[in-house]
Amino acid sequence: MTGRARQPPRIQDVARLSGVSTATVSRALRGLPRVSEATRRRVQGAVDQLGYVASSEASGLAGGRTESVGVIAPYVSRWYFSSVLEGIDAELRSQGFDLVLYNLGGYQQNRSRVVDRAMLRKRIDALLVMCLTLSETEVAALGELHYPTLVIGGTVPGFRSVGIDDDAAATTAMRHLLDLGHRRIAYIGGANEEGMSFDVPETRRAVYIREIAAEGLRPEPGWLQSGAFTVTGAMAAMQRILAAPVRPTAVFAASDEMAFGAISVLRAHGLTVPGDMSVIGIDDHEMSAAMNLTTVAQDPLAQGRLAAAEVLADVTGTDATARQRADRVGKIVTDSHLVRRGSTGVAHPDQGRGRLA
């Protein structure tokens, strides 16, 4: 018997029969929120009537999902980001999901390539964004995808987020130094790197200025430096601080890695920590105990697990619950606390006057 084989039904046929757009059909079959129960039943009825079978790209497994969660990361080589990724991956694997990584690699041009609907559509069930401040255009583009979306380590208006209270963490670090009697305190922070627009460095720098001002003080020229959140960047920043007209007695570094760079330079100049200068960081990096660094600890691995669990609850929950959860905004605040070690000490009158080697 000859003749053309009957073409299998397409998603366009399902959309036509159910009276909705193909995008709504896709969302209904993938179990995403913001599709009414009546529409979902109508789409399913059309699917059953036509015998439509969604492609693996469009719907993933039988549950209508891809079983994957996307993560946009500005870097993967730095401790905080790699630790968060480890936590995300552990939680996803425990629930049978895969991680799809979109690494910006620190380059702004990669950002427009990744934050594009064509890059993300049909590949994932939810999206996690690490430490980025999104533009209005990017927020709108991600919003059109209707994925459950959550930000880690920062805040973006309109999206949920997970992370420490950066204002509180920086305040803890500054109050520790001030309570030890330090009044000449320098700061090593981060700037807008390659257009990445982190909001965390801005918060920590603002706290430094606020706490200094609360004591009736102001930073001396050369005391506010950018270390680019790297060891080498902080080493250069510490050299500039030591070249300032007035030498501080303490340094607040906005990350432990920058604190490591500062301590390295101080020791290279024959200065002792904390005898000549106290140093405090934020993070509790895996090397912080070995460096005897006083720091304000956070747990990025736990943040990653929590963030992944949050979006998976959106994806795997009932339709009504998923819609309710996905519409929530606000920040889930995780723990941060002071860890006292040997890099900070009480200020004394002669501190900061030692000769440089």
UniProtKB/TrEMBL annotation:
InterPro entries the record matches: HTH_LacI, LacI/GalR-like_sensor, Lambda_DNA-bd_dom_sf, Peripla_BP_I
Annotated Pfam families: LacI (PF00356), Peripla_BP_3 (PF13377)
Source species: Spelaeicoccus albus
Keyword Transcription attributed: yes
Domain HTH lacI-type: 9-63
Key words, A-Z: DNA-binding, Transcription, Transcription regulation
One MF term in the entry's GO annotations: transcription cis-regulatory region binding
Stored SUPFAM superfamilies: lambda repressor-like DNA-binding domains, Periplasmic binding protein-like I
Protein name per the record: DNA-binding LacI/PurR family transcriptional regulator
